[in-house]
From TrEMBL:
It comes from Marivirga lumbricoides. Transmembrane segments: none annotated. Pfam families: Phage_int_SAM_1. Keywords: DNA integration, DNA-binding. InterPro entries: CB, DNA_brk_join_enz, Integrase_recombinase_N, Integrase_SAM-like_N. Coiled coil: none annotated. SUPFAM superfamilies: DNA breaking-rejoining enzymes (SSF56349). It comes from the Bacteria. The lineage of its organism: Bacteria, Pseudomonadati, Bacteroidota, Cytophagia, Cytophagales. Residues 3-87 form the Core-binding (CB) domain. This is Core-binding (CB) domain-containing protein. The keyword ATP-binding does not apply. The keyword DNA-binding applies.
Amino acid sequence: MNKDKDILTTGFRSYLESKGYTNSGIEGRLTVLKRYRRWLEEERLEAEQVTYNDLLGFMKWCKSKGAIQRTIQNYIGVIKHLYEHLIREGKVERNPATDIEVKGIKRKILYHILEPHELHALYNLSCHIITAKAEQGNIGHVSVPRLKNIRALQVRSERH
């Protein structure tokens, strides 16, 4: 059993590395994996046997340990990745965490997002400002080749 845990951790680490996570991001997710494995042991379950309802039990267990909804949501996100890894490895056919949504979390509302034409206008304005300052000698860190690149981009963007 302990050997299986090491294989699970090593394989999951490799999976997370392949997804481009940083070392600190990987370590954080492995900490969640330890917590999840502790719960699996208490419930006498194998990761490959877990169902949707079992994960609801895991969420209740986390809550009883003092975890807030946002933390539980993060845990479920890690567990979703774990099962995606196990699917890739051929150890499970289905991800039991796929349809789980944690209720009671305030969603971040994105306020006014710039439209493409507004972004384009800001970009053109910044190019004009940088070019003007560079030509006046007020911007010391823009090299001549960089200035030429800015002008080329400016001309290209004005064509569209």
